[in-house]
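Deliverable D5.2: sample structural annotation.
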Amino acid sequence: MEPIDFSKAKQDGKGFQFPGEFEITAVGKASANLPTHVPQILDRAGLHVFHETVRHRQSGEGNFVSVTVTVRCESREQYEAAHAALRENADIRYTL
């Protein structure tokens, strides 16, 4: 399988296209009630959150949880602001 040439994909109009719907995943402490807080953080950041899409999964030892939610972003800046808003939370380790 050939590696994806992202610069070419961008030129061809593939990849991230705005406005659009995107999944964002936040990973953090299991004790922080992130399945509730992640959508709230994204709401406060001004994104349209599809609450029915929220799903989560705990780590093997139960110390961490990943929360994935679909959001609508009007621009790349809004998408990046969503990740920044999540990373500002001390209980969230990283976002995808």
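Annotation notes: The longest strand covers residues 48-58. Confidence is low (pLDDT under 50) at residues 4-9.
The annotation will be released with the project's public dataset once the embargo ends.
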